[in-house]
Specification:
The protein is mainly alpha-helical and 153 residues long. It has one domain: Four Helix Bundle (Hemerythrin (Met), subunit A) (Up-down Bundle). Helices cover 63% and strands 3% of the residues. It is built from 6 helices and 2 strands.
Amino acid sequence: MTTSLLQRPTAQLELLFWTRQLLKPRFDEVAALRFLSNALVSLRDAKTPELSPIGRYLIAHEGIYALCLGTLYLHGVLPRQQDGSRAMAIQLAFELLDMTIQDLHQILAANRHLEDIAGLAHAPLAEHRVHDLVALGDRAMAQARLVYPDCFF
């Protein structure tokens, strides 16, 4: 195991930091593991059949987003809270995780759909969309285990 979970920021991340789209927070190993733990718990909870499809969809999306934030945090950066920062964080993290372009398109479409239905009390959601998002979260978590093995004991 390495002495620190912190990874070297990529040139792309350094550029986004320089343009003030990303912040460099003080790195804390426990916080890094908390992001990953939140992602694991959310993706597990998204498989709970007693919850509504929209509830499971929201939980799965939050789990994937927590994994994305954790991935960025492992490189010593986090997104600045501004319009589009969520989509940017997702895109950057999926690139750092070496996810496929199809997976990236799927999660960005899910993010847009989430923005569309946010605030609707009874948003209709097909069960297959929930299963697809949960499967995507599982693939992203499996890839994170490969890319950052020191974070998963």
